Amino acid sequence: MSETRQRPPASDSPYVPARQPQPTAWAGLVVFGGVMLMMLGGFQAIEGLVGIFRDDYYLVAPSGLLLTMDFTAWGWTHLVLGLIAVGTGIGVLLGQTWARVTGIIIAVFSALANLAFLPAYPIWATIVIALDVLVIYALAVHGREVRY
Description:
The protein has 148 residues and is mostly helical.
């Protein structure tokens, strides 16, 4: 017995639309990256406000910070990076391409700023650097899976 297969009806148009790629389970990692970007941005903004308003809050070894800046300048740096990171995280959750690119750039600058801030807060800066690396991975490798 032979099986007969039916062909799908031919369309009148020569154009065949491309299949939309289906998001995989890795899309959750991008959502994680966007949420972490917003959360780290909020933490960094708070860290910046503390640096601006309470210079004596941070304890530093006699060698000082890696870069020679006072804590008010570091406070402004962290505040600006944090606010941009929060806005970029919202863009990542909305699936915007510009937000993925900006999020990677902000995460790199955040990691570098926390590397220089390491003498003031070693454990916290190390945690933030590790989370920045996770955000960079999520946005660089699986970022396009969140697009609608």
